[in-house]
Amino acid sequence: SVWVSTDHDEIENVAKQFGAQVHRRSSETSKDSSTSLDAIIEFLNFHNEVDIVGNIQATSPCLHPTDLQKVAEMIREEGYDSVFSVVRRHQFRWSEIQKGVREVTEPLNLNPAKRPRRQDWDGELYENGSFYFAKRHLIEMGYLQGGKMAYYEMRAEHSVDIDVDIDWPIAEQRVLRYGYFGKEKLKEIKLLVCNIDGCLTNGHIYVSGDQKEIISYDIKDAIGISLLKKSGIEVRLISERACSKQTLSSLKLDCKMEVNVPDKLAVVDEWRKEMGLCWKEVAYL
User: Which GO terms describe its molecular function (predicted)?
Assistant: First the structure.
């Protein structure tokens, strides 16, 4: 069975839309200091029937089902207690020198006098955090890795970890080229819904002398929306804030919009049904 662990209403709704079951996290496992292991142990406390847990990280969007199936086989058929994902990298490592310390750096995994060519070196395996599979008894002892342990080497193009801002554009391009989109042929996008706060602004809110909020809109996004509309894609705008429709109309986008929306998913679903579309024909930014 597939479960999504969250304390967020919108994430719960989306998970259920795609057929997943939801474990509602407690306040204790939803803190900034909470770990994945904390959430998994809490989940197991409610599900005595579960013997094996595969923890998939949402920050690794290029996972393919075949990888997960092979890992499940390693545990069920080969008797491993835990399996985790790694990726092979060809990077030379050097010792770090603290600022102000008069030392020289030293090589950690190479001989500078005999630097190998990349094709002559097998490289090294690095844990990439995409997934951790472990048996129940191991998790209850406080471990995701242990017992009879093995790694599963992922293909480099599928190894994506979103951690800092620069990882987002890299992940977006990697997903488009190497992501898994199901066995069905991809449907053409017919409706694009843009979150006004994330798509049309520069991410800054200015405050005037009389304490009024002033938001700056980016004309480049408006041009992009215009090009999409010319290609036949319906573009609609949405925001949970009480944006000024009059101000937005000055951008001449000619798009249907809804502002001050508490439940964006419900509105997007209504638009989808209105246009007679399936979810695979809808994109959200």
Answer: N-acylneuraminate cytidylyltransferase activity
